[in-house]
Amino acid sequence: TRASEWFDIDVPMTGIRSTSVVYEANEAVMREPAALFCGEDENGCHLEVYPRSNGEVYLCGIGGSVYVDEKRLLPGGDCDRSDKIVEDPSRVAAAMRSFSGMSKSIGGGDKQPHTTQACMRPCAPDAIPILGPVDGIEGAYMATAHNCWGILWSPVTGEIITQLITRGKSDINIAPFSPTRFMKSRT
Questions:
Q1: Of 3, 78, 90, 106, which is most buried by a Cβ count within 10 Å?
Q2: Using an 8 Å Cβ cutoff, are 48 and 99 in contact?
Q3: What is the pLDDT of residue 2?
């Protein structure tokens, strides 16, 4: 990873490429916003439906996520830049089929999502976020590998990094998340 290059330490990382779609704003969503989490259906989707404050509806949990090894994420790899991370059209179609059965007013009929996209979710090999000071480099910190939970863990991650920078320690025990867990023993 780039962090490995910057800090001259081993920071193993894989990615999970996932497709998502966004539907246009809808007045009903703004009146009664509610997230919805579904089990897997006949289209291979386990939709997560998130209303946005502007009335848009964001769908993920579309299935077909692809695990990407570290070599592909490194400079020169086929997944080393965000513009190379593209949605899977077959998963967009599956999500549209699944969602149209749930919401005729938003996703039914010939309604199309206004945005189709993909993201790369960063993951450490032990599936635990990497969070804390970089050993041996004063003032360097890492906060990555949150996988799909980054949006939920971002407030506490920001608080932890702020405390580390301003006070030199965190109120929360972050030892299990330490980047040093990947460093080889120096004995």
A1: 106
A2: no
A3: 66
**CA distance to 4, 11, 114, per residue, from 165 (Å):** 21, 21, 40
Cα separation, 35 vs 132, whole angstroms: 32
Over range 74-83, report the average pLDDT.
Answer: 90
**Locate tokens 């579904």: which residue?**
38
Amino acid in position 78: D
Do residues 19 and 70 touch, judged by C-beta distance below 8 A? no
Helix, strand and coil in the chain, % to nearest 5: 35, 20, 45
Say whether 122 sits in a helix, a strand or coil. strand
8 Å CB contact between 64 and 88: yes
The bridge status of strand 141-144 relative to strand 48-51 is unpaired
Token pair in block for residue 129: 């976020």
Domains and CATH numbers, the chain: 2-123 (3.30.9.10), 130-182 (no CATH)
Contact between 13 and 1 under an 8 Å Cβ cutoff? The reply is yes
Distance, in Å, from the CA atom of 66 to the CA atom of 186, rounded to the nearest integer, reads 35
| pLDDT tens-place string over residues 39-51 | 999 999 999 999 9
